[in-house]
Design brief:
five-stranded mixed β-sheet; Heat Shock Protein 90; 3 domains; 14 strands; alpha+beta; Helix Hairpins; elongated
Length: 416
């Protein structure tokens, strides 16, 4: 999340701090009103009172919203990006029609507040119901309070940028960690077609040197060699796409096909885990609106979690069911059901928290990253306990609609 393009949420503790600041301003300056106003996204045609003093006679409670075209004092500060001092609006032709007069406020001192990148945030100001020229010390005090607000905004932007960078790094680290865990499966996947290539080449050589030559048999051996070589190329291509840190793109994705590729990629590890996998793919499934690589990363994470959940299972078959279906609202669901140890039924959402893991050597980022990916696809990811044994992890994503613009770039990871 970059500060220059995305509105950053302000946490409640910052608002509480600002409430205390405006209370102190109203008390020290002995005025009925001290407020902090903020321009409202996305069109910034209104501003909102986000912090307001609890002083007696304050006509501007927190939550009040004002249009940016009615000539208020704060509107002028925001538009001119400059301080404003109005000792008495009733005695000033320029301000005789100011909307604040109807609330009983006739004097005003306000300063602009800006984000670190120069965008307008809003104002901090004080208002009085009588003539008030606001001494130099009062103006200096308000300037210091404005500086505190802008320092808080700088901290929020820096924290937001750091979290965004960390999210990207965690997502990439998760892919690399998964690649290491799948090394045995990759060797298995490549070994089969490469063994076929060697066997077919040997057969072709024998048929070409035999008396008489078996040209038809040699041609068939060459055809099988090309087929196995293509299979090896597909394995490498899938791995390169899956573990490269590429920017995601929303497009038409066959959810069944994407899941089948991950199953094929993981078949060696499934066998090594002494597990069996069964699939139930809906035959009439429309295409999903998704980034194929990111969606496959989620499927891979869910499949690996299912295998990990059954590592200690010895008293029953280690069975996995991967299933796709269409939901009533038109979205597409993929579920991975295991026969493992399940999870704590009192805190299912804890599974998706960063750095929380039920595995002894787990990083605790797989499910957190997966939920971020699915939420960036305007979908949801959740977990439920099975009626008998094990758990089911499911996600749903919207189906692709022809009228939607395509392709559309997604955030690399909001997945936050």
């Amino acid at each position: 999340m970059k500060s220059g393009s995305t509105e950053i949420a302000i946490p409640s503790d910052i608002f509480q701090k600002w409430h205390r600041i405006v209370d102190l301003l109203a008390s020290i300056m002995r005025v009925p009103s001290a407020v902090v106003c903020k321009l409202e996204p996305p069109h910034y045609t209104h501003y909102k009172v986000v912090s307001s003093s609890n002083s007696e006679g304050n006509p501007f409670p927190a939550g009040d919203v004002f249009a940016m075209d009615i000539g208020t004092f704060c509107e002028t500060v925001i538009k001119n990006r400059a301080p404003l001092l109005v000792p008495n609006a009733l005695e000033d032709d320029q301000w005789r029609q100011a909307p604040e007069i109807k609330t009983g406020m006739v004097s005003y001192l306000g300063l602009p507040v800006v984000w670190p990148d120069g965008r307008m945030f809003g104002t901090i100001c004080v208002l009085d119901d009588k003539t008030n020229r606001y001494s130099d010390l009062y103006q200096e005090l308000l300037a210091h309070c404005r500086d505190v607000l802008e320092t808080d905004l700088q901290m929020l932007v820096r924290t937001s940028d750091e979290l965004h960078t960390l999210q990207i790094e965690l997502a990439h680290a998760n892919r690399i960690a998964t690649l290491g865990q799948l090394s045995a499966s990759i060797a298995h996947e490549l070994n089969q077609p490469l063994t076929g290539v060697m066997a077919n080449c040997s057969t072709c050589m024998r048929m070409m040197t035999s008396e008489p030559q078996d040209l038809r048999g040699a041609q068939e051996a060459i055809r099988r060699t090309m087929r196995d070589g293509d299979r090896a190329t597909q394995v490498v291509s899938r791995l390169r796409a899956l573990f490269t840190n590429k920017a995601p793109v929303l497009e038409r994705v066959d959810l069944n096909e994407a899941a089948r590729e991950i199953v094929a990629l993981s078949i060696g590890e499934i066998q090594n885990s002494r597990a069996t996998l069964r699939s139930e793919f809906a035959s009439d499934l429309p295409p999903a609106a998704a980034d194929r690589v990111q969606l496959q990363q989620v499927v891979l994470n869910l499949l690996r979690n299912a295998l990990d959940a059954m590592v200690t299972v010895e008293d029953r078959p280690r069975e996995i069911l991967i299933k796709t279906e269409r939901e009533e609202d038109g979205s597409l669901r993929l579920s991975v059901m295991d026969a493992g140890i399940g999870f704590d039924p009192h805190s299912p959402d804890k599974l998706f928290e960063p750095f929380f893991s039920t595995k002894h050597a787990g990083m605790g980022v797989g499910l957190a990253v997966s939920r971020s990916i699915i939420e960036n696809h305007h979908g949801r990811l959740w977990a439920t306990l099975n009626d008998d044994l094990g758990a089911t992890f499911s996600f749903s994503v919207p189906c692709f609609r022809e009228e939607a613009p395509t392709p559309v770039s997604l955030p690399e990871m909001d997945c936050t």
